[in-house]
Amino acid sequence: MSTEALYGVFHTGHVRVALPLDELREVIMRPPSFSKLPTTADGLLGAVNLRHIVIPVLDLCRLAGYANEDDRYGKVIVIVGLGRGEQMFGLLAEEIEGVAKIPQEALQQTTVAGDRPALFSHTFERPEDGEVVSLLDAHAITELPGVPVVRDTVSRTAIAGVEGRDNSRRTVLLLRCGPIGLCIDVGHVYSVIPQLTLHSSPLDGVTCRGVVHLHDKAVPAVDPLQLLGLGSVPDDGNLRGLVIAVPRGLVVLTVSDIADITSVPVGEVLPLPPVGMRKDGFLTGVLRTEDGDQHLLLDGEALRADAELDALGSLGVPLAGSVPQPAQAPAGAKEKTTGPEGRRVVPSVRKFLTYSVGMEAATPLAQITEILPYPQHAIGLDSGGALLGIFTHRQLSVPLLSLSVLLGVHDTPDPATARVLLIDAPSGELLGFVVPALHAIEDSVWEESEREDNGDPGSLLQRGPLVKIGTEAQGRLLPNIDLSALAAAELSAA
Fold it and tell me: Is it true that 4-159 and 169-318 share their CATH fold?
């Protein structure tokens, strides 16, 4: 019987590598600079402070002997953890490319002759595009001369308060299906449709509620409660859509509401009760959020692998009169083209959160750690500026900053509808940017190349880089707001 394992794939420089998913602790944004350590080693860039843990950061390209052609590459840091926090270090990376499920027999063992130690143990071919991926040997990296690693003795005891408790986190999208709460890891979300319009089709039945017109195709819409054997989602004329990608197309799950994005400790997901639940694999546990709501956790991998959903996804047909769109370039493509008004743009397909700040704007979803309702018990402050108040979260005091004010739009958000976008700063601090309303999670088509920063966040809405959201034919241009950079600027100015 074939054994499959999950690997997190990322690229750094021109090298595409992977780690077993249980070794890939988390991913954080690269800070403007690294703290120096009193040691030298090939590829050692310095250290970052991650929630009071000093993490050494390594440049994998330099470790492998490649000349660093551009010091500006590397947007994120992949935190590698071996054992139960016994050894931790960071690897500079350009981009996380997702999760690959690889059969054991597809791994090709690789040996390297000579004195230089091998940094990878196996290679494999990524199924969707045939790209060659090298499987890193994290243990071998820790044994290189002069390479420092850190032991995590804080987060699992003093902070967690429970000996041996797993303090890693997962980010999930909270859903409401009538009276039932569901949630799913954001990595399995293709996009979100804030207002769903269902059209009848020959596919209509108990599970399929019709089709949705999406990206010039008629995409099947499925009732998730029917799929789970838990009843049906009531249609009050105000349904939302959660789009997931299956191997042969797209499927839309019809839901009553898409509440928030939240980050939760992995250990807070409880197992399903032993009786009374279907054992079809679509549900993996129960999550209780900080405000007491309870949600059933959907297994995104099981949904993708389901033959019925895949068959429905393959039936998405082009709408009459639509013109097929050219294939979009993969995320991280380097080729530059000319956009509107002579702007230099880069083809890009990645997820953005769109929201209101007096006008519609967008931020890469990967930058946002959590999305919360405006906290009821926040300490309100009348600073005369962007600072609205302070609240506590994850045992940290978090400032509430009006993103509208920072961007030069002076309005007061309504706490009843406002949302807080939490950003993890490299220093371990949390910053909360308050936006008046959320719109959706959507894919980009292209992004404008970064412009020279004049240091004035108030100019971002008018002169900042743009991103095209939606499709090439029917998309819209939005300001691309880099919240990670804005958080770093606010901390440096404090």
Answer: yes
pLDDT at position 339 is 54
Structure-token pair, residue 420: 């807080």
Q: Are 422 and 398 in contact (CB under 8 A)?
A: yes
Q: pLDDT tens digits for 131-182?
A: 888 898 888 888 888 788 887 654 433 323 333 334 467 778 888 898 889 9
Segments of the chain with pLDDT less than 50: 1, 154-167, 279, 321-335
Q: Does domain 4-159 have CATH number 3.40.50.2000?
A: no
Residue 470 in contact with residue 360, Cβ under 8 Å? no
Question: Per-residue DSSP letters for 229-294?
Answer: TS------S--EEEEEEETTEEEEEEESEEEEEEEEEGGGEEPPPSSSS--SSSEEEEEE-TTS-E
The CATH topology of domain 169-318 is OB fold (Dihydrolipoamide Acetyltransferase, E2P) (2.40.50)
Taking the model in full, what pTM does it have?
0.49
Cβ atoms 466, 446 nearer than 8 A: no
pLDDT of 167 reads 46
Cα gap 412→471, rounded to integer Å? 33
Residue environment code for 173-207, b if the CB has 16+ CB neighbours within 10 A, otherwise e: bbbbbbebbbbbbbbbbbbbbeebebeebebeeeb
Residue 277 is encoded by which pair of tokens? 């639940």
Can you give the residue ranges of every domain in the chain? 4-159, 169-318, 337-493
Residue 222 CA: distances (Å) to CA of 166, 190, 205, 241, 308: 35, 15, 9, 9, 11
User: pLDDT value at position 246?
Assistant: 85
